[in-house]
């Protein structure tokens, strides 16, 4: 727009003509926004607010009288407040480059004054203190001309050919050199130790490499040997397994054949033997029962036969006495005794036969000796006749029973 002016961000617009500015200043200050300016009646000028730099190279004498060449750099600018802008505009608006020149001269004077109150040691070792004191002493003076200092840097301090700074630094240089030598020796020792350690590690690595190679070679040889033996070993294992399978098959066949033999021969033989044993036991039992029954029947039949033939036996015995010479001493009583003796002799013969049948063969002889009559000459024939008449299923004729019944009666008959 015609007549409307706007300053740059790092500039201050100074409008002169018309009303006066702040504090009776001959211009008004505009920053950060535009302003309508009447042409012809108003005049506009711009003052930079950007950072400026000034370099100071000055020879200063210390409190010790030693001349030092000092080089410093100052960074400054116009203050942002209207008062600083007015002060700087009134002094530098027509020639703004004079700000750097004037600032360098102001700082050179303050630098000489402060260095003159310090020793070389303080200046060299306390540069920051020197810069801070220079800033403090120049702050008021710089504010009067509308400038503010952002920083002051002491770049170099040199004593020329006097060698004071070098002499001052000699002990430190010697100590540093000594420390450097020690450090160098330590470094050399460390380097030698490192080399030895590296050599030892290389030797150890070479040894381990050789061992690993030998182990690998041995493993390769072993693998090759195993591979070469794999075929025969596999064949041998296969044959061994075949033999084992055949052996197991033969054992199973033998067991099966044994079981078949047991089933075909032993079991039937045992069954036949058991059957024969059972049949034999049954037959024995049957024969025992039959024998007992037959024995019982024979005894009953024999007893009946003996009983049936007892009269004939007595008759035969009496017939044997018919030709005997018998004297009867006591009459009727004597005859009765003879008859009783004959009957007793018959009973004795019957008992002897029974005992022989039962297995007790000598018990009948005593009974025959108790008779009351004695035969003379014809007794044996009568006894033989009696035995011939008593022949049955089991003939038995004891010797004692065949004697004459009258052997014990000699006192009664002659």
Helix and strand layout, with pairings?
Blueprint: E1 4-5, E2 11-16, E3 27-30, E4 35-36, E5 43-48, E6 52-61, E7 67-78, H1 82-92, H2 98-116, H3 120-125, H4 127-144, E8 147-158, H5 164-320, H6 332-358, H7 365-368, H8 379-389
Antiparallel strand pairs: 1-4, 2-3, 2-5, 6-7, 7-8
Helix pairs in contact: 2-4, 5-6, 5-8
Description:
The strands form three sheets. Strands 3-2-5 form a three-stranded antiparallel beta sheet, with helices on one face. A three-stranded antiparallel beta sheet has the order 6-7-8. The chain has a two-stranded antiparallel sheet with strand order 1-4. 19% of the residues are buried. It is an alpha+beta fold and 414 residues long. The protein is 61% helix and 13% strand. A hairpin with a 5-residue loop joins strand 6 (52-61) and strand 7. The chain has helices at 82-92, 98-116, 120-125, 127-144, 164-320, 332-358, 365-368, 379-389; strands at 4-5, 11-16, 27-30, 35-36, 43-48, 52-61, 67-78, 147-158.
Keywords:
single chain, alpha+beta, 8 strands, three-stranded antiparallel sheet, 13% strand, rod-shaped, 8 helices, 414 residues, 61% helix, disordered C terminus
Percent helix among the residues?
A: 55-70%
Please give the count of helices.
Answer: 8
The number of distinct β-strands equals: 8
Structural class by secondary-structure content: alpha+beta
Average pLDDT rating:
75
Largest sheet: 3 strands, antiparallel
Low-confidence residue ranges:
360-414
Helix-strand string: EEEEEEEHHHHEHHHH
Computed Rg: 87 Å
Percentage of β-strand residues = 5-15%
User: Biggest sheet: strands side by side, in what order?
Assistant: 3-2-5
Give the overall form.
rod-shaped
Distance between the termini: 216 Å
């Amino acid at each position: 727009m015609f007549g409307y002016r706007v300053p740059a961000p790092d500039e201050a617009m100074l409008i002169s003509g018309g009303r006066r500015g702040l504090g009776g200043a001959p211009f008004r200050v505009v920053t950060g926004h535009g302003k309508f300016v009447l042409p012809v009646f108003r005049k506009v000028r711009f003052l930079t607010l950007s950072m400026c730099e000034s370099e100071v190279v000055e020879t200063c004498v210390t409190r010790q009288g030693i001349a030092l060449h000092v080089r410093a750099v100052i960074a400054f600018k116009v203050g942002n407040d209207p008062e600083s802008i007015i002060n700087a505009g009134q002094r530098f608006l027509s020639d703004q480059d004079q700000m750097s020149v004037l600032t360098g001269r102001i700082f050179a004077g303050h630098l000489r004054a402060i260095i003159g109150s310090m020793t070389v040691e303080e200046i060299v070792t306390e540069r920051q203190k020197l810069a801070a004191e220079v800033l403090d002493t120049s702050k008021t003076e710089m504010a009067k001309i509308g400038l503010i200092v952002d920083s002051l840097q002491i770049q170099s301090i040199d004593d020329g050919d006097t060698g004071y700074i070098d002499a001052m630094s000699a002990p430190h240089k010697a100590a540093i050199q000594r420390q450097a030598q020690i450090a160098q020796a330590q470094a050399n020792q460390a380097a030698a130790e490192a080399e030895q350690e590296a050599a030892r590690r290389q030797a150890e690595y070479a040894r381990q490499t050789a061992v690993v190679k030998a182990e690998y070679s041995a493993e390769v040889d072993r693998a090759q040997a195993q591979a070469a033996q794999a075929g025969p070993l596999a064949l041998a294992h296969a044959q061994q397994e075949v033999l084992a399978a055949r052996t197991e098959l033969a054992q199973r066949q033998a067991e099966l054949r044994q079981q078949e033999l047991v089933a075909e021969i032993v079991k039937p033989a045992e069954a036949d033997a058991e059957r024969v044993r059972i049949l034999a036991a049954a037959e024995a039992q049957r024969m025992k029962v039959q024998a007992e029954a037959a024995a019982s029947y024979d005894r009953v039949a024999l007893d009946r036969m003996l009983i049936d033939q007892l009269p004939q036996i007595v008759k035969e015995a009496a017939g044997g006495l018919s030709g005997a010479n018998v004297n009867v001493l006591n009459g009727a009583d004597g005859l009765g005794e003879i008859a009783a003796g004959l009957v007793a002799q018959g009973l004795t013969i019957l008992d002897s036969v029974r005992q022989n049948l039962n297995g007790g063969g000598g018990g009948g002889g005593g009974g025959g000796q108790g008779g009351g009559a004695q035969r003379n000459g014809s007794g044996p024939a009568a006894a033989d006749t009696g035995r011939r008449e008593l022949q049955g299923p089991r003939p038995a004729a004891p010797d004692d029973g065949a004697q004459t019944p009258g052997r014990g009666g000699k006192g009664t008959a002659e």
